[in-house]
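Feature request, filed as a ticket because there's no other form

It would be nice if the structure record came with a short human-readable summary line next to the tokens. Right now we just get the raw output. Example of a typical job, pasted below so the devs can see what we mean:
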Amino acid sequence: MKIDQIGGINPLNNVQNTKRAQNAGNVKGSPDSISVSAEAREMAEAYYLKGIADETPDVRTDLIAQIKEKIKDANYLNPQTISATAERIMQAYGI
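Raw output as currently delivered:
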């Protein structure tokens, strides 16, 4: 025979369940929100861009190999090609 239960009903469970039901009604339904400062957004963007810059190679070896092959050809180095290259270099420097 169990002393803590009377007639198959545990009185401790009834008290605990009543308290849980009362506390559940006290919870407010307001949504959570966060606020991110402008400085934090800028730092996140800088971190993202740094990751992209770290993954991008500084030298495009495929283009360098193509240009080296073209320069080896004697017909490629003509006055028109040299003039066009000089124009592009001057435009890049704003001259």
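Something like this underneath would help us a lot:
The radius of gyration is 38 Å.
Residues 38-55 form the longest helix (18 residues).
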